[in-house]
Structures are given as structure tokens and as C-alpha cells.
């Protein structure tokens, strides 16, 4: 994913086509979450979140295109814990249940 985002930043036409398709699919998926759960914010994490603002900018328009109007104001954010978020969450859950 990093190589594709890096090439997209350099305006590589193949990478741009791959990213456009990814943003379209991810935006559609996030619109389903918005319409089903109506969250205030969706936090994007994992390795792809290292793309930062490029990820948010790419996904936002397709997401809003497929989202019902009452749910369109959902904010997107990048997870600050990155790939370690799952580890921290599992540890917190273990502390709550076993202490």
C-alpha cells in the first residue's frame, strides 16, 4: 500500500487508477457504516492510515456520495496509535476483565 500511495503522490497514472478504485470502494463501505451506525467520527487505522490526509481526502467524496443526507457530516480521522491500536485495546480489555 505504501508504494502505491507514494507513486500516487508522484502522479503515476497506474497508481492513481488503483487509488481511485480503492477510494471508491472504501468510500462506499464507509457510507454503509455511516447509514447503519450514524457515528460522529470514523477513525481509520492500520498500515494504510500512514497515507494520512491523502487517505481522508480520497475517501471523503465517494463516502458522502453514497451516504444519506442526515449522515453526511461524519468526520474522518486517522488513528493516532497506528498499527498498535489493537494491541492497546486488547491490553485494556484484559485489564478490565482480569484485575
Radius of gyration: 16 Å
The side-by-side strand order for the widest beta sheet comes to 1-2
Shape: flat
Please report which band the strand proportion falls in: under 5%, 5-15%, 15-25%, 25-35%, 35-45% or over 45%: 5-15%
Helix content: 55-70%
Describe the largest sheet: 2 strands, parallel
Order of helices and strands: HHEHEH
* Total beta strand runs: 2
Question: What does this protein structure show overall?
Answer:
With 99 residues, the protein is mainly alpha-helical. It is 62% helix and 8% strand. It has a two-stranded parallel ribbon. Helix 1 crosses helix 2 (13-37) and helix 2 (13-37) packs across helix 3 (53-66). The chain starts with a helix and ends with a helix.
Question: How are the secondary structure elements laid out?
Answer:
Elements: H1 2-9, H2 13-37, E1 41-44, H3 53-66, E2 75-78, H4 85-98
Parallel strand pairs: 1-2
Helix pairs in contact: 1-2, 2-3
